[in-house]
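Researcher: I'd like a structural prediction for the single chain below. Treat it as a standalone chain; there are no partners to consider.
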Amino acid sequence: MSCRLSATVLAALAACCAGPPAGAHAEAASVSIHPSFLPNRLGASTAFTLAFRFAGGEEGIPPPLHQVAVDLPAGLRIYLGGVKVCPLARLKRKGASGCPSGSLIGRGHALLEVHAGSQAVPEEATLWIFRGPSREGLPTFEIFGHGETPLDQSAIGTEILETDKAPFGWRTVTTIPPIPTLVYEPDASFVSVSLTVGGIRRSPGAHAVGGAIVVPRSCPAGGFPFAAELTFADHSTASAAAKVPCP
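Model: Treating it as a single chain, here is the predicted structure.
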């Protein structure tokens, strides 16, 4: 993982000398989740989007994220037939462009905050989701993120897909590595994340997306349930739940 200081960060460092105001205290970090299907039609192949919004934390910035577990509704079907595997070593060495065609299953975007003294500088990152090698018979995915401003760096999170108990059918557990920023400063923190898998049209010069997500054939009263449990680097936790309305 490489980092390069930009003029934005240098300016922020030059401007910061004051510490937090007296009596200031950190609010516990919180998260909200926003799942959606497009189209939201029973039994239809769909684009599934899951967005996260973070709040709280010291000076309004949540602690760095360590792990995310997401519960998906029963009956949701995930097809990976024909999706190729992108070896982790190759992804680390060459980035998203190094993965074989047919290994990409989704894309996304993240907004992070980088500490620079008393300043917080936003960092935008593009995300790609590739199929990884199975672990003990369980499918895995590699979430590759790359940001360019103010820091030029990449990071890879590993996600495992496993079965879950009712009212859910699947659970994904994603481990996020530390994302270093500046010397003596905390690792980067997530402010928002949005990921979409399935149903994504191919863009010129881009990977085609493999696999498919299919909406359950029946909908429980109140809608399709989703839940998330998050663990931060300081060992604090947060949770959230949401539902996609029945078609």
